[in-house]
Amino acid sequence: MTEVKTRARPAAVRLTPAAEARVAELMARAPEGAVGVKLSTPRRGCSGLAYSVDYVTAQDPLDEKIETPGGAFYIDAGSVLYLIGSTMDWVEDDFTAGFVFQNPNAKGACGCGESFTI
Question: What pLDDT was estimated at residue 105?
């Protein structure tokens, strides 16, 4: 019998240390029953797809799971193909705070930055 060798595959999305810290903050004050934070790309906005980060109360076995120091981070199974190779960061300045995405798959974005096209 031949030996089957496997290797770990890279996560679809890379979280920066700031994004991991934000996930930890979210999980520290998560509502009861939350098992993690999930990234999805629902259809909305003027360009078609948007980034959405929400708490989840159950793991979907089809979702990609990334273990972070602060808790589980999930990527919606239907969104993975739109996000492969992306970097998710958490950025704060004097006026705004939010997750920022560098997505090599995005072909365009709306002027307000709320949505993107593939």
Answer: 81
